[in-house]
Amino acid sequence: MTQGFTDWLQKSRLTVVDVDATRGRLRVRGEADACSDLACGEQTVVLTEEGAAGLAALSPGDTVKIEPAVDRPERIVVLRRAWEDTASPEI
Predict the structure, then answer these.
(1) Mean pLDDT across the chain, nearest whole number?
(2) The whole model's pTM is what?
(3) What is 5-86's CATH number?
(4) Which residues pair with 76 in a beta bridge?
């Protein structure tokens, strides 16, 4: 069975659990509630609505998509901020 676009998008989303910008570490949680620790390099770019930034621009609860390089994340795209979830009328 082929995977639909919505399923793929849901599985590629990660939630930020913890950020250690000084050490270049990022902990994220995936769809199955399993956490992964990522080591980010100096070249890792965080893309937000405001533009390119560093790991310090991330907050726990943010929904992101990781675009990996060979051994470390190259780009981290912020899809939704944590405070947008709490301000949502659905809650």
Answers:
(1) 82
(2) 0.77
(3) 2.40.50
(4) 46, 66
